[in-house]
Amino acid sequence: xxxxxxxxxxxxxxxxxxxxxxxxxxxxxxxxxxxxxxxxxxxxxxxxxxxxxxxxxxxxxxxxxxxxxxxxxxxxxxxxxxxxxxxxxxxxxxxxxxxxxxxxxxxxxxxxxxxxxxxxxxxxxxxxxxxxxxxxxxxxxxxxxxxxxxxxxxxxxxxxxxxxxxxxxxxxxxxxxxxxxxxxxxxxxxxxxxxxxxxxxxxxxxxxxxxxxxxxxxxxxxxxxxxxxxxxxxxxxxxxxxxxxxxxxxxxxxxxxxxxxxxxxxxxxxxxxxxxxxxxxxxxxxxxxxxxxxxxxxxxxxxxxxxxxxxxxxxxxxxxxxxxxxxxxxxxxxxxxxxxxxxxxxxxxxxxxxxxxxxxxxxxxxxxxxxxxxxxxxxxxxxxxxxxxxxxxxxxxxxxxxxxxxxxxxxxxxxxxxxxxxxxxxxxxxxxxxxxxxxxxxxxxxxxxxxxxxxxxxxxxxxxxxxxxxxxxxxxxxxxxxxxxxxxxxxxxxxxxxxxxxxxxxxxxxxxxxxxxxxxxxxxxxxxxxxxxxxxxxxxxxxxxxxxxxxxxxxxxxxxxxxx
Length: 564
What we know:
- This protein is α+β, with helices and mostly antiparallel strands.
- Among the domains are: 75-170, Uridine Diphospho-n-acetylenolpyruvylglucosamine Reductase, domain 2 (2-Layer Sandwich), CATH 3.30.43; 178-302, Uridine Diphospho-n-acetylenolpyruvylglucosamine Reductase, domain 3, CATH 3.30.465; 305-420, Alpha-Beta Plaits (2-Layer Sandwich).
- It contains 22 helices and 18 strands.
- It has helices spanning 21-25, 37-47, 75-85, 94-99, 106-113, 130-143, 196-204, 206-210, 230-235, 243-246, 249-252, 279-283, 318-329, 344-353, 360-367, 386-402, 411-418, 426-431, 446-461, 493-509, 528-532, 534-547, and strands at 90-91, 123-125, 147-150, 167-170, 178-182, 187-190, 216-217, 253-260, 263-266, 292-299, 301-302, 309-315, 339-342, 376-382, 406-407, 436-445, 466-472, 479-488.
- Strand 17 (466-472) and strand 18 form a beta hairpin.
- The longest helix has 17 residues, at 386-402.
- It is globular, with a radius of gyration of 24 Å.
- The relative contact order is 0.12.
């Protein structure tokens, strides 16, 4: 028998070739984070793998992309688009057609590894400004050409798969700038193609770049922060890791401007209005099925990095962690920014990967009644004015201790922060050896949390050899979310898809929301009516017919195939 870590797994350290399938499905072609030796031991234990199983990578997708389906547009149509956006902003090559008709869902990753391109567009367009978008939408509506809006391309719900070909409209190439920073009203108007780090960096440098009196922050930091665009945050109803304080993306949006087949629709920056149902809210989360977002007014917040207060606690069990969290967010003394509790399986795996389970600290925890596969880790940060941050942290400590938690200092939170944006890059290493990792997330009310957590986990664990880590990371006075991370080594892709579909059905059956912050796309569209009910779906379909009567806007997303 080989000793632990005797052989280094054959991880790929090569930058994905610019025209390869791998450069399409990889989150970032030139970024890597290989699973640690601890992870390798977990894979061996859970999936009966050996060192030999990690030496031969397969279906790596290193080959050049080839699209079998020919472009369905005429030369006259292609020329018309070139006249709109400029010849340099039109692409017809196979790689571009595949890249901009594909997201980062597990299904898309697996297909591309097998050289299957399901979502190739006919043509890729890079609009330079709003006028270009207006002309593109008008032309496509008249000619019944499908449009797939593309931002950062990090979506994980098959949200921009070009089922009907057509054109991809790529916003991040040119429409990626701050239009106006309104410091008096604390709103920033930004183009949808601006990527998260660029947006946050510009706000942090507001005095230098815009002559502002203060530096600002966007307040929205999803795990995909480095990979997603501002427009993607909004159109897919994203939620950032600091959402408990700043709010979800939908809470941060102040106004929007869309180009739709029915015309341009623009909402106001006025903070409140009683003039009927809020159209601004109706537009959020439409995933490009109503139109193309061209401008968004985002709330911004004063940037006080020096006031961050970190905390971490170990709770004796999941019920205690949940009860304490509910008391904290309902306490009305202010809320943490980052706030996260891990269930026993996620907690134990995290401790094992850090080598903590064999340390003196583990013995100390057990001496204080913190038992294996019962204890639950909670981490968080508080942001804002110094006195506010100190007071919130003090109250968090008081409530945590009252629920039997032991303080761990902010070190555990800093350890979590190290991987908050980089852990996603481990997925490709795992898939190289047939190990799948995927996530399902749901919103729950407090009174149904334990039921959904228990029911979903019991269902998942019926399948032998399935890791199911679960945490809650977005908190509201009325409930929270549950984030299920599934790791498995299925016999084939079909087995995985069937299993995931059954888990989604179980979530809906138990009363959880269909999605909390990943959106719907095509992946969850089949459950939409079952989840929302017929009347709500009819309202959404009526809106779709109004904005997009010819069903050219991201057809298939959210609604599935539209009749007529």
